[in-house]
Amino acid sequence: MTNSLDRATKGAKTGREQKYRESFMRHYEEVIDDLRSYLSTLVLNSADAEDVFQELSINLWRHFDEYDREKSFLAWARVFAFNSARTYWERRNRRRLGSLDHDTLQNLSRAYKGQSEFLELRREQIRKCIAELREEDQKFVAIAYGDDASLVKYAKQMQRSVDSLYKRISRIRHKLKRCVERKSHD
């Protein structure tokens, strides 16, 4: 979490305020990487994007009571991110440091969202294809790509060669690739 956001949200004292803060943090932590990536697309300069991100985080906290819990937090937060990027470019323009016009910013935003939607569709296809694998292959994929993935450690546990596990994961990846390609054409 960002230091400035941490300081801004620490003021929650009562149980209700604490639950409110926890609700915000749960939503925020789910989308933080996407928001940071989205801003990097719109702001271009990574140091400036991080500064804009810090401001965005505080603004999201300040306006969280306006968030409609029935809708996507990410979509709501992206509106704030877009406006933060627009403000950033307007400030640069006033200081004659160069700027992106509103249409260019909109085009960058659309391109990012299109790419995001494509990647989400691809992830969904991969999840479906993994579900179609044999159960033992599903477990192996979970082990191979899990948080503490180590094929070397797993090979020792299973008393198999590391090379045989790499060949197995390669065969599974090939199956998944064919499955995703097939689903893409459906």
Describe the structure.
- The chain is an all-alpha fold and 186 residues long.
- It has 2 domains: 1-100, Rna Polymerase Sigma Factor, Chain: A (Orthogonal Bundle), CATH 1.10.1740.10; 121-186, Winged helix-like DNA-binding domain superfamily/Winged helix DNA-binding domain (Arc Repressor Mutant, subunit A).
- The chain is 80% helix and 0% strand.
- It is built from 8 helices and no strands.
- The two termini are 41 Å apart.
- The model has no long low-confidence stretch (mean pLDDT 85).
List the SSEs and their pairings.
Blueprint: H1 3-9, H2 15-43, H3 46-62, H4 73-94, H5 102-132, H6 135-144, H7 151-158, H8 162-185
What portion of residues is helical? over 70%
- The SSE string, one letter per element, is HHHHHHHH
Uncertain spans = none
Whole-number count of domains: 2
CATH superfamily of the largest domain, please?
RNA polymerase sigma factor, region 2, helix turn helix motif
The biggest sheet amounts to: none
Query: Which outline best applies?
Result: extended
The CATH architecture designation of the largest domain is Orthogonal Bundle
- Give the averaged pLDDT, no decimals: 85
